[in-house]
């Protein structure tokens, strides 16, 4: 996980599952699988999830380097 919890939480930008899917250019179901599989950290708010923008960027960065 990124350093989202070590700093000021008010500075964290949270994205909805739909926003994460848009950024990653995948389906919402793919994002849900990543969250439920523990690959992408998320915060549960009521019945929905929020993912920090930093964690999305970290996931994409790590995934990019693993493919090479």
Describe the structure.
The chain is of the alpha+beta class and 68 residues long. It is 46% helix and 16% strand. It has one domain (9-66): Multidrug-efflux Transporter Regulator, Chain: A, Domain 2 (Orthogonal Bundle), CATH 1.10.1660. It has helices at 17-24, 28-36, 53-66, and strands spanning 14-16, 43-45, 48-52. The protein starts with 13 loop residues before the first strand and ends with a helix.
Topology of this protein?
Blueprint (H helix, E strand, L loop, with lengths): L13 E3 H8 L3 H9 L6 E3 L2 E5 H14 L2
Antiparallel strand pairs: 1-3, 2-3
Helix pairs in contact: 1-2
**Helix content range of the residues, please?**
40-55%
Largest sheet composition: 3 strands, antiparallel
Write the CATH fold name: Multidrug-efflux Transporter Regulator, Chain: A, Domain 2
Number of strands: 3
Throw out a few tags for this protein:
alpha+beta; Multidrug-efflux Transporter Regulator, Chain: A, Domain 2; three-stranded antiparallel β-sheet
Brief characterization of the structure:
This protein has 68 residues and is an alpha+beta fold. The chain is built from 3 helices and 3 strands. The protein has a single domain (9-66), classed as Orthogonal Bundle (Multidrug-efflux Transporter Regulator, Chain: A, Domain 2).
């Amino acid at each position: 996980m990124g350093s989202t919890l070590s700093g000021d939480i008010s500075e964290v930008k949270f994205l909805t599952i739909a926003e994460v899917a848009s950024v990653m250019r995948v389906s919402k179901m793919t994002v849900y699988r990543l969250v439920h599989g523990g690959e992408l950290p998320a915060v549960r708010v009521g019945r929905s999830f929020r993912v920090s923008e930093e964690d999305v960027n970290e996931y994409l960065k790590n995934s990019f380097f693993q493919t090479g």
